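Table S2 (continued). Query chain:
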Amino acid sequence: MEKLTRMQVVKLAKQTGVVSGYDLSGLDMRNLDLVAVTFSGSNLKDADLSSSNAGMSNFDDADLSGCNMSSANFIGASFKKASLEKSDLTFSSFAGADFSGANLKGVNFTNSKISAADFGGADLSGANLQMTEAVLIRGAGATFYGISAFGSSMIGADLSGADLRKAMLHGTDLSGANMSSADLREADIIETVLIAVNLSNADLRGARVRTADTLRAKFDNIKADDNVKKELVPDDKPDQPG
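Corresponding output:
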């Protein structure tokens, strides 16, 4: 795999828009304009893409493990089957990005915007999603084992059939989310907003639950300890007149 310099990357990006199959490991690529550039299959391990503009770019099957991708723009970018293990994605925008089938173990998404991103079949085990804007993400069947999502907004997310075992959902807003058949065993669901959430057929055995609001939520056929079932009884009573 041919090794490129920063200047060679800039030249190829400008002339052809294709930087595929190259060795870019450890490369300083900060503050570059990389819009709609194809990096598929390239080795970007430990590269620095911070503060760059890579919206609509293609990183399918690329190795981005250990990358610094903070404070950057990746809106609409594609990371299908890419490896981003333990990368720093803090304060960046990944709205509408495609992470389907990607390795996102230990990724740090803190304070990032990932709304409407596709995580179908992705592995986010141990990922940090604290204070993340994750509205309408698509994560059906994905692995979110042991994630930390303190204070995140996951309104309308599709997490049906997802693995959320030991997930820390303290203060997370899951209003309108589809979590049917999700595995939430031993998860922390503390002061979590569950308005209109669908938890039908979900497994919550061993979960620690203290919810903020379960108005209009669905809990049909859930598997849960008695104390959890008692905590999750929806409060659909109308407000009393003052």
